[in-house]
C-alpha cells in the first residue's frame, strides 16, 4: 500500500490537559479522566487485556504479571530465568492464545545470552492457573543486540502469529530474506511455518526492510498497522502488507531523495502512512472504537518514548490518517505501550526506568484514560408481577456497586403511581425490591441496567430474580394519617389476612396482631376504592 506523501514533523492538533491538577483531557463534548492505576513498575513493555478481564504485563527484567484493572493489585506469575536485560534488550512482546480457556498458551519474546552474544527467542509457555510451565521454543538464536531488537507479537484471525524483529544493528540484513532481523515474521500457533507465507513454506518472513518496529495492531478495516523507529529522522507509521519491502536501510520514510526514488522504483517499496522528523521514538499502538469517547472512535492510539506524548490518529475510510491529536505531553514522561479494554478504558504504561529515562519516585506507572460519565448498557428487559406482589433483583457480580438500575414506572391506563424501589447495597451485591402499587391484577415495568466504564467485566451481568424474598421477621407497626380509608393486609399469595376500615383524621398506629410471622403487603384505599398507599411489611 502506497499512501499520500505526507512529510509531517508534527502532525497534530494540540489538545492539552486542563490545568485542574492535570487530571483530565477536554475534547469537543467529552471529558476524559486521567488517573494512575499502579506505580513502581519495572519498565512495563507489553500490557494487554486478558481473557480473565485483568491486565497481563511483561516487565523488561523478565517478569510476567497479572494486574487488577480496577484496583492495581499485581500478581506476579513467572520470571524467565535466562532473560537478559541490557539497554533495550530483555523481555519484550507477549500475546495470549485466542482460545485461552482450552489452550492456555502464552507467547513471549525475550533476549538471552549465548556465550557473550545477545540472542532473541520466541517461546510458548503453558499457564496452569498459577504460573508458567512447559516452555516450547518456537524460534531460537535470532541475532540480537542491546539495541534495535524491539519485538511485538500479534495473533491474526486466521490463527497465525506475527512477530516483529529489529535489525539488531545489522542494517543490510533487513533486505536479506535469509535473515530474520529487520522483518515481520509469520508462524502457525504450533511453531510451524504457514504454507501461504510469501517467500516459501520454509521461510517465516512476512514483510521485510524494517529497522525497529515497536507497535503492531490489526484494525477492523483489515489493515495491519505498525509503528517503527527511524534513526534520527523518519519515524514511521506503516501499513504492513504481505510480502512487501519497506526499504530500510536505503529508504528512510518516503521515497523522496534521488537515491531513495531509484531504490523504490527498482524494489517496489511500500511507503509509510506518516513520517516524523525529528523522531518521536514511536512505541506501542492499539485500535480504539468505543462509544465512551466518541471523538476517538475509529482511531489508532500510539505511545511515544522520546517525545513523551500520547497520539490519537483518526482513520479515514480508506485506512489513511484523517487527523492527528496529541495529549499528555510531558505529563508522565516516556510512554511505552497502549492497551484498549473492551469497556472503553485505555491503559498506558510509562517507561522512565529504561536506559533513556529519568524516573521519578513513582515510576514506572500504569495510567488509565476513561470517560467517567459514560455508562455501558448491560440489560434492558420487562418484568411482570402480580398486584400486591414483591420481587427481589440481585446482582451476582462482585462489581455490583458500579451498576445502575433504573426501574420504569410501569404506568397503567387507570393509575399513575410509581413502583417503590428499595435498595440494599452490600459490598458484593445490590438488591432491588419492587413493590407493586397498582390496583390492577398484574403490572409490567421496564428495567434498564447500565454500568460505569470502571467495571472490568460489564458483559453478561448475572442477575438473580427471587419472588417473595422477605424472610426476616419484625413487628408490624405503621403510622397513617388518612381518614375514611380501607386498610387491607395481603399475604404473599395475595389473600387478605386482615382488613379494617379506618376513620381518623389524625395519625395513629395500627397493629396486625393475628397474622402469623411472614411478609405481607399493607394497602390503603379510600372508601370509594381509590388507591392511596401501599407498603411492603414484615411481621
What does this structure look like?
The protein is mainly β and 539 residues long. The chain folds into three domains: 358 residues, Neuraminidase (6 Propeller), CATH 2.120.10.30; 93 residues; 61 residues, no CATH class. Helix content is 2%, strand content 45%. The chain is built from one helix and 39 strands. It has a five-stranded mixed beta sheet with strand order 1-23-22-21-20, with no helix packed on it. Strands 2-3-26-25-24 form a five-stranded antiparallel beta sheet, with no helix packed on it. The N terminus is likely disordered.
Features:
539 residues; mainly beta; Neuraminidase; 3 domains; five-stranded mixed beta sheet; five-stranded antiparallel beta sheet; 1 helix; 39 strands; elongated; disordered N terminus
Strand content: 35-45%
CATH fold name of the largest domain, please? Neuraminidase
The second-level CATH architecture of the largest domain is 6 Propeller
* Cα Rg: 31 Å
Q: What value does the average pLDDT take? A: 81
Tell me which oligomeric state these chains represent. single chain
Helix and strand content put the structural class at mainly beta
Helix content: under 10%
Count of alpha/pi helices: 1
Question: What's the number of structural domains?
Answer: 3
Q: What is the CATH level 1 assignment of the largest domain?
A: Mainly Beta
The first-to-last residue Cα distance is: 76 Å
Instruction: Tell me the major beta sheet.
Output: 5 strands, mixed
How is the largest sheet built, in terms of strand order? 1-23-22-21-20
Shape: elongated
Unreliable runs: 1-21, 410-440, 469-483, 503-515
CATH homologous superfamily grouping of the largest domain: TolB, C-terminal domain
Query: How many β strands by DSSP?
Result: 39
Amino acid at each position: 500500500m502506497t499512501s499520500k506523501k505526507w512529510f509531517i514533523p508534527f502532525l497534530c492538533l494540540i489538545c492539552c490537559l486542563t490545568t485542574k491538577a492535570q487530571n483530565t483531557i477536554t475534547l469537543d463534548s467529552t471529558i476524559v479522566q486521567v488517573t494512575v492505576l499502579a506505580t513502581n513498575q519495572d519498565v512495563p513493555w507489553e500490557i494487554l487485556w486478558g481473557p480473565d478481564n485483568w491486565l497481563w504485563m511483561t516487565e523488561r527484567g523478565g517478569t510476567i504479571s497479572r494486574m487488577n484493572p480496577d484496583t492495581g493489585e499485581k500478581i506476579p506469575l513467572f520470571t524467565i530465568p535466562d532473560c537478559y536485560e541490557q539497554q533495550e534488550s530483555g523481555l519484550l512482546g507477549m500475546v495470549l492464545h485466542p482460545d485461552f480457556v482450552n489452550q492456555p498458551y502464552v507467547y513471549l519474546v525475550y533476549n538471552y545470552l549465548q556465550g557473550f552474544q545477545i540472542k532473541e527467542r520466541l517461546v510458548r509457555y503453558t499457564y496452569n492457573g498459577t504460573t508458567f510451565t512447559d516452555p516450547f521454543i518456537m524460534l531460537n538464536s535470532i541475532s540480537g543486540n542491546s539495541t534495535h531488537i524491539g519485538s511485538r507479537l500479534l495473533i491474526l484471525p486466521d490463527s497465525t502469529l506475527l512477530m516483529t524483529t529489529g535489525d539488531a544493528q545489522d542494517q543490510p540484513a533487513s533486505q536479506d530474506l535469509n535473515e530474520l532481523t529487520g522483518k515481520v515474521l509469520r508462524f502457525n500457533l504450533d511453531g510451524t511455518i504457514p504454507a501461504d507465507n510469501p517467500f516459501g513454506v520454509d521461510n517465516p518472513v512476512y514483510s521485510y526492510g524494517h529497522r525497529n518496529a515497536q507497535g503492531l495492531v490489526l484494525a477492523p478495516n483489515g489493515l495491519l498497522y505498525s509503528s517503527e523507529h527511524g534513526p534520527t529522522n523518519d519515524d514511521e507509521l506503516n501499513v504492513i502488507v504481505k510480502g512487501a519491502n519497506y526499504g530500510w536501510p536505503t529508504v528512510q520514510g518516503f521515497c523522496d531523495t534521488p537515491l531513495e526514488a531509484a531504490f523504490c522504483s527498482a524494489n517496489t517499496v511500500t511507503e509509510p502512512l506518516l513520517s516524523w522528523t525529528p523522531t518521536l521514538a514511536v512505541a506501542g499502538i492499539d485500535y480504539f472504537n468505543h462509544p465512551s469517547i466518541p471523538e476517538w472512535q475509529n482511531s489508532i492510539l500510539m505511545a511515544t518514548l522520546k517525545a513523551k506524548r500520547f497520539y490519537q490518529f483518526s482513520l479515514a475510510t480508506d485506512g489513511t490518517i484523517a487527523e492527528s491529536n496529541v495529549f499528555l505531553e510531558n505529563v508522565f514522561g516516556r510512554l511505552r505501550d497502549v492497551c484498549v479494554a473492551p469497556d472503553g478504558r485505555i491503559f498506558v504504561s510509562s517507561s522512565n526506568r529504561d536506559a533513556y529515562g529519568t524516573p521519578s519516585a513513582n515510576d514506572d506507572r500504569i495510567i488509565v484514560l476513561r470517560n467517567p460519565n459514560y455508562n455501558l448498557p448491560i440489560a434492558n428487559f420487562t418484568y411482570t408481577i402480580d398486584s400486591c406482589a414483591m420481587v427481589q433483583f440481585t446482582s451476582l457480580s462482585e462489581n455490583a456497586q458500579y451498576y445502575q438500575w433504573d426501574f420504569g414506572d410501569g404506568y397503567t391506563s387507570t393509575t399513575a403511581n410509581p413502583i417503590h424501589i428499595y435498595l440494599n447495597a452490600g459490598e458484593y451485591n445490590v438488591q432491588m425490591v419492587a413493590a407493586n402499587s397498582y390496583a390492577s391484577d398484574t403490572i409490567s415495568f421496564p428495567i434498564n441496567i447500565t454500568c460505569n466504564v470502571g467495571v472490568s467485566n460489564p458483559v453478561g451481568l448475572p442477575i438473580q430474580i427471587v419472588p417473595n424474598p422477605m424472610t426476616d421477621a419484625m413487628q408490624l407497626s405503621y403510622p397513617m394519617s388518612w381518614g375514611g380509608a380501607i386498610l387491607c393486609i395481603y399475604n404473599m399469595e395475595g389473600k387478605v389476612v386482615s382488613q379494617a376500615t379506618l376513620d381518623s383524621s389524625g395519625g395513629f398506629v395500627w397493629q396486625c396482631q393475628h397474622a402469623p410471622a411472614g411478609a405481607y403487603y399493607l394497602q390503603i384505599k379510600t372508601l370509594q376504592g381509590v388507591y392511596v398507599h401501599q407498603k411492603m411489611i414484615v411481621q
